Amino acid sequence: MIGDLIGAPGALGAFALAVLIFGFAPGIVLAAIVRLIPDIDRRLELQAELYEVPRWERPFWVAQQFEVALRVGLAPRVEWYWGRHVWHRSKLDSGLKRHRQYPDSFWVPDDEDKADVRPGDLVKLMWSVERFPGERMWVRVTKRNGNRLLGTLENWPIYVYMHPGEKVSFHIDDIIDCMFEDTEVEVSAEVA
Question: From CA 126, how far away is CA 153, in angstroms rounded?
Fold first, then answer.
């Protein structure tokens, strides 16, 4: 009986296709799909759930997970990209240019203070955003190369599409305020 099934024309191809569709493909396709989901725990959970689904239902279950991955994983990424690069385009503004425009009302640190900025210090920078008010946020300096600096964002922005900890590259003239690491005030409790 088995010999007759295997010997039938196209039987081996049909068997190989069934093994591919119901055995091999769901795991590989799901592994690619879960890459869209940002939550690592949810990724692992979905991959473990695959083997609890009956074998004949796995291709359809994986297709449903693709819809979930598009909704939960890809849609927020597209929204973030659209917001950052299209709708809320922001750019770093020069503090020195703004000071030259409004010398009586817009203060910036003098050249000596800017020259003293070192890794570990906090500097305030300002961003302008199309269609929205700009923002002023603190950046912790991580590297300095002459007048070019690199730092990480310390604030949660409202209008600028950035995350805390995101790297920011800027020029010394972009600084609008400084807080040096060694001059921070320490509060100590006095013993009565």
Answer: 12
Please give the torsion angle defined by the CA atoms of residues 143, 144, 147 and 148, in that order, rounded to the nearest 10 degrees.
Answer: -30
Q: Is 110 left (phi over 0), alpha (psi -120 to 50) or beta?
A: beta
> Which residue is it, tokens 């800027």?
170
Q: How far apart are CA 24 and CA 13, in angstroms?
A: 15
> How do residues 49-86 score in pLDDT, each as one tens digit?
888 989 889 889 888 888 888 888 877 777 767 766 66
| In the chain, domain spans | 2-87, 90-182
Architecture of domain 90-182: Roll (2.30)
**pLDDT on residue 5:** 58
Q: Which residues of the chain have pLDDT under 50?
A: 184-192
CB-based burial, 148-160: b 16+ in 10 Å, e otherwise: ebebebeeebebb
Q: What are phi and psi of 129, to 5 degrees?
A: -130, 130
DSSP secondary structure of 7-59: HSTTHHHHHHHHHIIIIIHHHHHHHHHGGG-S-HHHHHHHHHHHTTS-GGGHH
